[in-house]
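Revision sheet: structure tokens.
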Amino acid sequence: MKARLPPLSALAMVAALLALAGCRSTAATTAPPAPPTPSAAPPTKVRPPTATAPEPYDVVTDLQLILGKWKLTDSIFVRFDQDGTFRGAHRLDELDSGPYHIHTCELKDGRLEIAQVRVVGVPSCGSKVGRYEVRLLESRNLQLVLIQDPCAPRAADTAGVYSRLP
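Predicted:
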């Protein structure tokens, strides 16, 4: 006659299975704890140089950062005013007395939108709106990068790297 074992409780069965599993190497089934990962570096707004940016830059999202006078070339001077206007002149002293253009300007998420108010002696853009990315370069120069401007003459006179004037 065969001896009969008493029935195992569910808890006893789990314990027996765990004991059997313990016979195998735990190295294959249990991974060592992962080393602590260093915290990620905080995100930075500075972008590295690219084909269109000669040096690292920040995208400007506040018009206050670019208010004032800037020089693009020896014959293109601009000024961003507190009232949301953007003036251009062929000479620095003409920004007040005789700008060749006055535009409204609005900064939206790093994109400058300009629309003509008045032009003198340059082609009119009418109601066409130009869009430019505004970058403050590491050198503290200003770069306006053309996104879209259906007015080619204005685009040619606006995109570029400007140096701040006192």
